[in-house]
# Entry
Amino acid sequence: MRIAVLTYTVPHRKTYDVLCLLKVRGYEDVCVLASPMTYRKKSNPLVAYRPDMGHLVPEAKETCRAFGFGYREIADYGEAEGADVYLVCGAGIIPQGFVDSHRIVNAHPGYIPLARGLDALKWAVLEGLPVGATTHFLGNEVDAGEVIERRELEIRSSESFFELGMRVYRTEVDMLVRALEKLDEPHEFIASGGTILHRRMPRDLELEMLREYESIVSEVEGR
# Structure
């Protein structure tokens, strides 16, 4: 199975973690397809809950050289042909035509379709939705469609919100690689069904979300 990892040309933590896990699990026919990062966050969140994606990790081409993986920089998706499956670690807008004609797996840090869009974990806590992660094939809808796996995670007592976020992140990375074992299993198609596609959470709601999280943790501790 020829595996392509879609990412950026800059150092990227999720890409590094996924490449390490692919190596540990014995995958050999792996090639990173790197494109320029054009997206930048407009503002820093008040509440951080994921690792700094560019902090203290080597560039993907260095990791690929060490692991014996391929590495290629691409200007557009016309240069991305040749793989049996594509794993999304970082990517800009992927043309719909490419999505429709390839198996592209995304790992979303939310239990879809209930927690879709940006800041999925924060919105899940604020709105009382399940916390978790989902792997799915890219399709016509954002964070919906043909689901490979969904995992719901319980909120633990004495766990900070950042610790929960890191647990969701580690689950997301693990599920993205494990999706390779589940590609040809029966999958459930889950449409968005009118659920909300969230944007970044405003700062005033971040504070409200943190108060809600502390309330949930207190309730868990009291059981």
Observations:
- The chain has a mean pLDDT of 93.
- Helices lie at 13-24, 60-67, 96-100, 120-127, 161-178, 203-221.
- DSSP finds six helices and ten strands in the chain.
